[in-house]
TrEMBL record:
Organism: Lithospermum erythrorhizon
Protein family according to the UniProt entry: Belongs to the germin family.
SUPFAM superfamilies recorded: RmlC-like cupins
Protein name: Germin-like protein
One Gene Ontology MF term: manganese ion binding
Record-listed oxalate binding positions: H102, E107
S-S bridge residues: C23-C38
Keyword Mitochondrion belongs to the record: no
Subcellular location: Secreted, Extracellular space, Apoplast
Principal location: secreted
Amino acid sequence: MLHFAILFCLLVASANASVQDFCVADLKAPQGPAGYSCKSPTKVTAKDFVFSGLVGAGNTSNIIKAAVTPAFDAQFPGVNGLGLSMARLDLAPKGVVPMHTHPGASEILVVTQGSITAGFISSSDNKVYTATLKKGEVMVFPQGLLHFQINAAGVTSVALVTFSSPNPGLQILDFALFANDLPTDLVSKTTFLDPALIKTLKGVLGGTN
């Protein structure tokens, strides 16, 4: 009899449970550790689930000759809470996305134009995994690992990237080391690089000290 009572309670609880199909980001509300708050369902429209920002090419006229156009929760409210997002990668000839990590997500990259050399470094033994990808080929980058992408063609290369989080996060190693006010002496001691080289890189990337 006890078993039937427990089963009945579970069925009732399940029937009364609130099922939320989606949580469109309320961009006007503060963002917390769990992401954005949900927009009221009465204010959600089909436009919240459509994003056109990946149609056009990004601006690659910068020091790395690359552009990453995100479709994260801040740009694409419909992905909030769904555990995924996208981005577009444009790499001009000689373009590169330097060593970087996404602390909050794994990444899948599919080349849609040109050719891209990409790779990542394992955290256990620093083994390097690289491949040159042609149009239609795909590579996965595990969460949190250092990885890079380089244009391997003589023309602009393009890729679409999917992440396993609506906000994967980003830290580019070169900018983390040389685009801040961390004293050159400390950078030298922690990287074993020559201070003169560090100052040169700080000058190029906008760092000080």
